[in-house]
Each structure stands twice: as C-alpha cells, then as structure tokens.
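Anyone? Bumping this.
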Amino acid sequence: MDILNAFILLLNFVLIPAIAYGSQLALGALGVTIIYGILRFSNFAHGDTMAFGAMATILITWWFQSMGLSLSPLPTALLALPFGSAVCALFVLGTDRIVYKFYRDQKAKPVIFLIVSMGVMFIMNGIVRLIIGPGDQNFNDGARFIIRARDFRNATGFDEGLSLKVSQGITVATTVTVVIALFWFLHHTRTGKSMRAYSDNEDLALLSGINPDRVVMVAWLIAAALATIAGTLYGLDKSFKPFTYFQLLLPIFASAMVGGLGSPHGAIAGAFLIAFSEIMVTYAYKKVVTYLMPEAWAPDTLVQLLSTDYKFAVSFMILLLVLLFRPTGIFAGKAV
Amino acid sequence: MTAKAMTGGYGAADILHDCTITAAQGEISVIVGPNGAGKSTAMKAVFGMLKLRAGAVRLDGEDITSLSPQDRVARGMALVPQTSNIFPSMSVEENLEMGAFLRRDNIRGTMKQVYDLFPTLREKCHQNAGELSGGQRQQVAVGRALMTQPRLLMLDEPTAGISPIVMDELFDRIIEVARTGISILMVEQNARQALNIADKGYVLVQGRNRYTDTGHALLNNPEVRKSFLGG
C-alpha cells in the first residue's frame, strides 16, 4: 500500500507534470530545429514567437468569449488556435520578408543571422508587451480537472490523491496529434520531402529544381504554427506572461541541442529529457521516502537536490555536458 | 550539346581560355588533363555555374548561355557533383524521387529503369543513402540525376574514391546509359580507363584545348601517352 502511495505521489507530482512540460518543450524545440535545418541558424526569437502566437490566440479567445462562443468543457482557446496561428504566421512571414531575406540575399554567415534573430526577439518582446501588457493574463475557461485529487482518494481509498488537469490532457493529446501530422508531412508529402532534402544537402536540392523560397516559406509557416500551439498550451497549463516565454528559450534550445539540432526526433527526445531532469532534480522527495522507509528512518529534510528556483540551471548543465561530450547531440544532428 | 570558345573564371583572372567541348547524342565525351587544368571548371561552365566572358553553350541548337543551372536542369541537363551528391539522411528511393522533383508525370517507369541499371539499389531502396558504400552512393547519385530524364548527363569525377573493380562496373553502367541515347560528359582522373570508353576525348591544359580526338586515337597518340598517361 505504501509503495503504491509513493508511486501515486510520483505520478502526480513528477510524471504527469513532466510529460505535459516535455510536450510543450517538444513543440517549441521542433520549431527551433526546423528553422535550423532549413535556414541554418539558431532562432533566438522563437520564445517570443511563442509569446506572440499565444497573445494572438488569447485576443481572439476573448473576442470569441465576448460573442458567447465556447467549446465547453474544453477551453475556448482551442477554437481560437488556428486563427492565432494564422496571425502569427503572417507576422513571421513579414519578419522574414523585411529582415531575414535581406541577410539571405547577402549570404550572411549563420552567426549574423543568430544576432539578427536576437534583434527580432527584442522587437517581438516589445510588441507583445505593448499590445497585451507585461502582466499575467487569464484566458482558460472550461473545466479545470479531468481527475480531481479528492475524487480519486474517495474512489480508490489511497491516502494520496491523483489529479489530472484538463490543460495537461489537452497538451499531451495536441502534441501527439501535431507530432504525428508533422512527421507524416515531412515523410509522405512532396513538399515535406523537399524540405528534408533541402536540409540535407542544399546545393543538390537546388540542382534537383527545389525552389528555396518556397521551402523557406513553408519552414516559417510550420515554425509559426508550432510556436503558437506550444505557447498557447503553456499558457493554458501555467499562465500567460510574456516574460516566461523569454525564459523558456533556454530549456527549448537545450532540448533541440541535446537531441541534435536539425533532427526532429532529437528535438522530441531532448525535450522530454530536459523536462524530466528539471522536475526530478527539483522535486522534494520527503514524502516518497517516508512511504518507502520504515517510520524511524523518516528524513528531516525535504530530500530535494535543488530548489525549484534552479530549474533552469538543470537545462543549462545538461546543455553544457552535451556540448562538451557530444556536440552533435544524441541523434547526431548538425554540428553546432 | 556544344560549348564553344568558353572563356571565363571565378574572379578577375580567367581559368578557361577559348575552350571548346561538345557531346553528341548517345556518345561519351571525356575531359582529362593534369591537376589544375580546369577540367571541373569547364564542366561547371557548361552547367552555368561559372560566368563566361566569351563563348556560348548550346543544347540541341538552343543558346542556353544565359540560363541559371536550375533552368538548365529543366531543359534536360543533369549534373552529378563530385562530392556531396546524395541526400544522406533520406532513403535511396526518396533520393530518386527528389531527382524527379520537377517532373509532374508518373516517375515509376524511370525509377524502374534506374533500378534495372543498378539492381543493388532496388534491394536497398528503403535504406538511408548515407549508410551505403562509396560505390553504391555513386550509383544513387547517378540514379538521382537520371530521374530528370536528361538529354545530357554530366559526371564530375564519378570514380573518385572508389575501388578499381567498382570503377569498371560503374563505367560499364555509364556505357549502358549512353546507349539509351543520353549524351555523357565526364571529367575523370583515371584518364586511361576513361578514354577507353570515350567516343571523344578532350585533353585540357591550363584551361585550353590541347588535344581533341576520339578516345582511342588519344590513347594511341604517343605525345598524349607520354605527357598525360604515364607512358
């Protein structure tokens, strides 16, 4: 019984949150890795693209709510997501036309693109704050829980409760759908294959008659859609605050790099590795240990490796280790 | 295909001087010469990857001198580059599909022809091209180029880095391709073997035509033997 209680505790506070967080990171890292694969630079503006897409979705959600549209018990934001993605895609394509295309025509080095993307990041950062403000925004309507902790305790008789939020369920379901759709697109459509070919060997892709402008455009469209979905899911699960998306940049890049930049499989694997590490290292195991050990051995401390304030340090450490010992990442993407 | 009196280079200095190369339908033309003779440069010029100051490239009588490489692919030219000539993380079949990217008609027939030419590729069609041996990669590269149904197939040192047995095998396949009516233009380091299968040979020295003759005539020419074929 105690072992089961300990297991439920871990499920509730480690496994489920890590899977949801990992899914959000995976969607973000996929966007980063696709831009890296096609445009060959690390897009630092991706975190703020997530914020922009989420903001667009929130504004449309509020509009829908004011008209009485709803998906109850699911959040209205899901209904607004396609429109938010479209707005974000337009914005991102505009940025490409005005900013990145200039440097592409000059055949600028990747490091210049990287710095340019930081400039874009600050601009997007400012735009989002100007439009929606720097504070927390609440846009999650609909039901809160799929399983409530108290109901679970009453139904099963365990001491520990298990709760599953609607936002967590939606996050995982959406991520699975999006990832399957993305891989199907990349492996079974003409455009998707041409993107992989372009990422693999740009010169040969040109020799085969693949149109680089089209490949770049589709890459931005996919990145914008992924960013909007990731941003909105994160906002539903936690809360929407522009600054948190800027902070997410580190774990997202860590995920993409740990998996191997340019490798979509790697981005997903890396995201879950980072998410599980962050949550497992910062979780206080006191209660779990208490369940598993005889009563006399119950620990006095929290049995926590690092305080939750240090969770970004975890992704940073993993990133450092990977760059030191396996710079191309687990799935051997392109060298950084 | 006729490339007449090509003069040009990458920067201010010219690499090619009044260089003329032709490839007739169903024939194999080979460019040989010492290192730095401008062999690959001549081929790049034919393909439009080099700006010409003078001269003209014609394909079936049509002047294509001002066309980009991509446009030349659409007109029926195909190039197999010397290095990185495959999509390593894509399957053999996908490599062939990408070769046929510009085609909107059914590509199954051409794919079957490629597989008939290189039976090993049919066995490995779902394997990633990057996992194949050097000779097999070269087959993928030639296969990819053939998927465009070119009238002129250009090969930049196709036997670089592969073993002599595999090289003979590849030359046999190239002869088969030529028999189907495709013109072949090839740059080769292995001058003797290449001239052996060539209908026409071009010996370039410092970007100029030094000797131009049939492959066998060049092989029997004592001066060519002495200077370029090692006796």
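Late reply, but here is one note on the structure posted above: The longest strand of chain B covers residues 52-59.
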